[in-house]
Design the sequence.
């Protein structure tokens, strides 16, 4: 059987796409490996990211490396799929004749057939899991309708399209039967789920249905747009013990001037009201957010307003990006990139220094608490664990000395927090 190496770059949504593709290829009789550097796979498929400059550069560099391997005869066929080839297929074809073919983000059937397989609709809820066995991502929708000024996702992936609920529940059930204990629910905007299929937002209904799956322990919600956040989602998060008290909700900025320029469709007052509502309903909620600094027109006053907002809200998790132009977006075509690069980087650093202080203070408040954790791995002298307040790969970890009782990956334990730093906690099993 021909072995195919599927290499995935970019976000967790790309991970899900690759896992579905690998299942289709396995159903056609191929052997598949994920992100392997072994040279015995004669076919390489690279699932690219084309969202921001650094990610595009990483994708291009990996394609070039694979092209060199093909020239050297170490691989026989090379295919590029995903966001980068969706946006730049014609340019890439001209520059990279070593690549056998390019496919975008909507043509999974095309790549399967090009590889000599048969696309099977009966396998659409099957996946070859590439994450650790105990957790997986569940992508509930594709594309986005918001069209924020800086974002290329609608250009790349189109308008929002929800996955039918029965398909998601079938997919989730299969994952749990395979050993998954934790599901990260993802989409470009999870709160938009259902509007296109059912005429109303049905994320709360989906979450309640997922909670009924026996064997599933944690459900975690990522990428919720703040505008028109459904009250029923707050209710189900508060009521259902399987749903982690964790919400990833990218606010991007808080200055009304910047929100309007970014076409964010909400105001500072509305964002603050939503945060109050969430924390009133769930006092122990962990809020994760991202901020974008250096957007066209951002003044020092706008940035200071953002700093004050972060100080007041005390987000448990926060990431910062410096603005960069993405061709085809509103901000790239209509606005002048007028904030100097050094100012952008200074603002990133200032905001991250503030967040480091807040994170240290937030963590120290957890010292002495008993928390339920899942073991992700063992690294050196420590087991690496997470509580319900932390998502894998992007958030902090709880380090448990690997002495005494043996702990097992994917199992849950009760741990007392003994110490804290800016971005890590330490604990011992009770």
Sequence:
């Amino acid at each position: 059987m021909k072995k195919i190496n599927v290499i995935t770059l970019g976000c967790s949504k790309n991970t899900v796409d690759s896992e579905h593709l690998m299942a289709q290829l396995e159903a056609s009789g191929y052997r598949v490996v994920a992100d392997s550097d072994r040279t015995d796979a004669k076919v390489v498929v690279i699932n690219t990211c084309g969202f921001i400059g650094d990610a595009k550069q990483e994708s291009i560099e990996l394609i070039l490396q694979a092209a060199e391997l093909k020239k050297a005869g170490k691989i026989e066929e090379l295919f590029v799929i995903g966001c980068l080839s969706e946006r730049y297929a014609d340019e890439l074809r001209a520059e990279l004749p070593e690549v056998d073919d390019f496919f975008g983000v909507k043509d999974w059937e095309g790549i399967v057939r090009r590889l000599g397989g048969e696309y099977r609709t009966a396998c659409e809820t099957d996946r070859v899991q590439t994450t650790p066995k105990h957790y997986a991502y569940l992508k509930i929708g594709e594309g986005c309708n918001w069209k924020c000024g800086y974002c290329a996702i609608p250009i790349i992936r189109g308008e929002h399209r929800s996955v039918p609920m029965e398909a998601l529940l079938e997919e989730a059930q299969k994952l749990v039967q395979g050993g998954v204990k934790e599901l990260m629910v993802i989409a470009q905007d999870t709160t938009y789920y259902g509007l296109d299929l059912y005429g109303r937002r049905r994320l709360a209904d989906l979450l309640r249905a997922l909670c009924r799956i026996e064997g599933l322990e944690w459900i975690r919600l990522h990428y919720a747009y703040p505008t028109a956040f459904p009250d029923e989602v707050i209710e189900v998060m508060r009521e259902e013990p399987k749903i982690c008290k964790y919400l990833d909700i990218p606010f991007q900025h808080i200055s009304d001037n910047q929100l309007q320029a970014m076409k964010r469709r909400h105001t500072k007052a509305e964002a603050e009201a939503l945060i109050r509502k969430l924390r009133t309903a769930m006092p122990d909620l962990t809020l994760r957010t991202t901020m974008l600094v250096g957007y066209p027109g951002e003044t020092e006053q706008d940035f200071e307003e953002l700093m004050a907002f972060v100080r007041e809200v005390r987000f448990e998790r926060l990431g910062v990006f410096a603005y960069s132009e993405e061709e085809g977006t509103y901000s790239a075509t209509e606005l002048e990139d007028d904030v100097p690069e050094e100012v952008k980087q200074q603002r990133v650093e200032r905001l991250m220094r503030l967040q480091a202080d807040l994170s240290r203070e937030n963590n120290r408040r957890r010292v002495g608490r008993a928390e339920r954790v899942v073991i992700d791995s063992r690294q050196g002298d420590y087991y690496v664990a997470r509580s319900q307040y932390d998502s894998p790969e992007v958030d902090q970890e709880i380090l448990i000395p690997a002495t005494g009782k043996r702990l097992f990956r994917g199992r849950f334990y009760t741990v007392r927090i003994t110490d804290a730093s800016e971005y890590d906690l330490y604990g011992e099993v009770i």
About this structure: Residues 22 and 128 are 6 Å apart (CA to CA). The two ends are 49 Å apart (CA to CA).
